[in-house]
Design brief:
Shape: elongated
Strand content: 15-25%
Mean pLDDT: 92
Structural class: alpha+beta
Low-confidence stretches: none
CATH topology of the largest domain: Ubiquitin-like (UB roll)
Radius of gyration: 27 Å
Strand order of the largest sheet: 2-1-5-3-4
CATH class of the largest domain: Alpha Beta
Number of domains: 4
Oligomer: single chain
Largest sheet: 5 strands, mixed
Distance between the termini: 58 Å
């Protein structure tokens, strides 16, 4: 066994894992489901939801998200004691949670729904525990997503995402006890906060508390590169027919590790816009008419050959990479013989 790996046993399955990894991460990476709500691989573990309880070495129970695995450790994930503790924890969460699952945008992808199904909820117990669902008006001030705090489970993932990944700190916990909520400064609408609308919190929310305003599950996905700047963020376009219905970041990409800005995540409607140009236009008899690329490029080449020197100017774009912008200035100076070049980001 390698020195940077350890061997642990989970439910009788011997696993070789990376030293320092948590028991929960090791289990999930090896296809062993342990219920959880507040855990996300991009964030520092907090142990808020208490659903990821497991038994360690047959002696004691603890939360697996914050427990580093040790060589020789024996873990059990489904003892009667664990089942009882998890059931109480998830019942307390569901007791005041809306039950409109079929009409929720997170139906089939909701982590609370998955955990409840896995743990098993008894209808008779829920009837005794259930009280009126707290009515909290939806915050629809943001143009891209909706905040429905009546579905919030206070996992803190959105808060930690805004702090650890985005660095904006637009939201935090407010209130105490049963009155605790995730709020902006002075509890103003999200559009009046310093939120940058990147949607990172929406992408990580485990329930239906944060959902896009336009939600259509895609029929297929196409991997591509964002066109909005020269960073080269990788993303997946969710497609239905020939229309883009959503975007998600590519977690395996070294450029962005799944993160996206507001433009990359929500600025895709131009692709299917009816006014989008799909062919080059040339001016004939005073009017712009569609033409083929060969004709347009031949015309550009001909114009370039007669407009060298200070009659020529080049305006570059922030959507180009550094290498492409270098070629643009080289072409302008060495080929066209002028220093008339500028960049849209400087204007």
């Amino acid at each position: 066994m390698k020195t940077d790996t350890i061997a642990i046993t989970i439910d009788g399955l011997k696993i070789e894992a990376k030293k320092g990894a948590s028991v929960l991460d090791i289990a999930l990476e090896n296809g062993i489901y342990i219920p959880h709500l507040c855990h996300h691989p991009d964030l520092v573990p907090m142990g808020i939801c208490r659903l990821c309880l497991v038994e360690f070495d047959g002696k004691w129970m603890g939360i697996s998200c914050k427990m580093p695995a040790k060589d020789g450790m024996v873990v059990k994930t489904n003892t009667p004691e664990i089942q009882s503790a998890r059931k109480i924890a998830v019942e307390l969460i569901i007791a005041n949670h809306p039950l409109n699952c079929l009409s929720c945008a997170k139906d089939t992808t909701c982590q609370l729904q998955r955990a409840a199904n896995f743990i098993g909820i008894e209808d008779s117990r829920m009837k005794r525990m259930r009280r009126d669902v707290k009515v909290i008006p939806k915050d629809e001030s943001n143009p891209f997503f909706v905040r429905d705090l009546s579905k919030c489970v206070l996992c803190g993932i959105c808060i930690r995402t805004c702090d650890e990944i985005v660095g904006v700190n637009a939201i935090d916990f407010a209130g105490r006890g049963v009155n605790s909520v995730v709020a902006t400064l002075a509890n103003k609408p999200i559009a009046e906060s310093n939120c940058v609308s990147c949607g990172e919190c929406v992408a990580r929310c485990p329930v239906g508390a944060l959902v896009p305003k336009k939600h259509e599950p895609p029929a297929r996905e196409v991997k591509t590169v964002c066109t909005y700047c020269g960073v080269g963020c990788n993303l997946y376009l969710g497609v239905r027919g020939d229309e883009i219905v959503g975007v998600r970041g590519a977690r395996e990409a070294e450029t962005n590790h799944g993160n996206l800005c507001v433009k990359g995540r929500y600025g895709y409607e131009f692709v299917n816009h009816p006014d989008r140009l799909k062919k080059p236009l040339v001016r004939k008899d005073g009017e712009l008419v569609e033409t083929e690329w060969d004709e347009a490029l031949d015309m550009v080449a001909q114009k370039f050959s007669t407009r060298k020197g200070d009659e020529f100017a080049f305006l570059s774009s922030a959507r180009c990479s550094n290498e492409e912008n270098y070629l643009a200035q080289k072409f302008t100076r060495a080929v066209m013989g002028t220093h008339n070049i500028d960049h849209c980001a400087r204007l």
